[in-house]
Amino acid sequence: MAEQFPGGVLDLLDAAGDRPVFEHAGRTVSGAELLGAVRRVTRGLRRHGVRPGDGVALLLGVSPDAFAAVIAAHVAGARVVGLRPGLTAAQQDQLLADVAFVVTDRPDGLPERAGAPPPARARSVLALGELLACADDGARPVITARPGDVARLIHTSGSTGLPKACAQTYAAMTAAWTLRPGDWPPAIRELATRLDRFLVFGSLASQVMMEYGLLTLAAGGVLVTADPPAFPEALVRLRASASVITVARLTKLVASQRESPVDLGGLRALMLSGSPLAPGRLREAAEVLGPVVFHGYGQTETGTISMATPADEPGSLGVPPVDLEVRDPAGRPLPPGADGELFVRTPAQSAGYWREPGLTAEVFTDGWVRTRDLGHLDAEGRLWLTGRVRDVVIVNANVHYAGPIERVLATHPAVAEAYVAAVPDEDTGEAVHAFVVPAAGRAPGLGELRELVTAHLGAACAPARLTLIDQVPLTPAGKPDKRRLAEGGGRAPAPPAGVARPAAGTDFRAL
């Protein structure tokens, strides 16, 4: 049986020795040096009283030192919480509610806010630089993580107003195949051969970024950093062979290569994350960039579910290497070719939502996870997605629920009813399209609605387009028919007397 996580990471770094494993800001770090950083940070955390089960939040950039801090927190058995950029004040407070320690590489530490709740002021804030200054005894760190403890809370996008946290145990992280080449599914084995230089950006709090980073180390590759990542410049400058990419960024990269091509001969893999990619777009990417796109499908709750290689038919997500059932609304398994909701079981899936027993019972059922996605398996076992059970908009690969956005919009005094649907967006993949029935005698402006939603839910949830309608079309069951809305089925009202209103379909970038 594999050693408790993160023992496999320590083994990889130890085996790497003097081989470079990380390049950051002109600095090259070997496996031995990175392992030494893990030892020092672990020692520092324990000196400050971090024990198994303690909540430790990481407010860090993307660097080898930040990577060492993540692994050290797991060696100490902490419940690790990553703080990603772009959180509202309320969302940050939610993530820090059960945290006793914050580790940061920011000079100002954790900024104080007027009116912040007492726990935010009372927790210990530890500077990463001070932890790294601890002496290195050269001994392998003793892993004190316990299998049943929560290893990390992986937060969803927070579109319900406050982020939901998927709780992944140390046992689940140990069961993951990422660090064990002998257990890699065929698509991952092929991908691993292309991870010579994996471009890391954004945040190591990202589940996707961290998993591909660990996979790169297991494949003998090097992590290289660029933040923010300007594509294709960063790919060329850092000689990156692989990177994670969203649909919107892939579309821009393809357009850029058509207009002003640069030498991307060293690029061998782009791991598509987030929104599904239309088959036509995938064919275009292959024509311009070559056979480099690996189309992954997974969820925060489950980790990777399936992956299509460049050789797979466009639109397919490959053959899932995990347990997957397609079920009808009554929960009965469906035969190949029939569409239904996807239920999956993965080795590293979350145990549930942190302190959300009701939601956990709804999504985690008898060892299976309800994906709330629709799809089918073909006769060869390949997975095809066909829709979403959930009413969501995916912005920059993050899922945002329509209901909370609609409720915030409805609080505006000029809004009688509000409905939200996804609209394609060249910059973010999808964006929020708000359909609003104005209150009598009034008409809201897009700018003020964007400000309202941004203040409550963050900028990603703010509507990019606004259409005023006089009534919402209904399904035969009497529910709002958002498909008809998106197809123009809502009738636009005449503007109230003396009141100017935005034209239907107004785009905020044009204002």
UniProtKB/TrEMBL annotation:
Matches recorded under InterPro entries: AMP-bd_C, AMP-bd_C_sf, AMP-binding_CS, AMP-dep_synth/lig_dom, ANL_N_sf, ATP-dep_AMP-bd_enzyme
Matches recorded under PROSITE patterns: AMP_BINDING (PS00455)
GO molecular function: acid-thiol ligase activity
Signal peptide bounds: none
Pfam family, one: AMP-binding
Highest taxon of source: Bacteria
PANTHER family named in the record: LONG-CHAIN-FATTY-ACID--COA LIGASE, NONRIBOSOMAL PEPTIDE SYNTHASE PES1 (EUROFUNG)-RELATED
Name this protein carries in UniProt: Long-chain fatty acid--CoA ligase
Originating species: Streptomyces hoynatensis
Source species taxonomy: Bacteria, Bacillati, Actinomycetota, Actinomycetes, Kitasatosporales
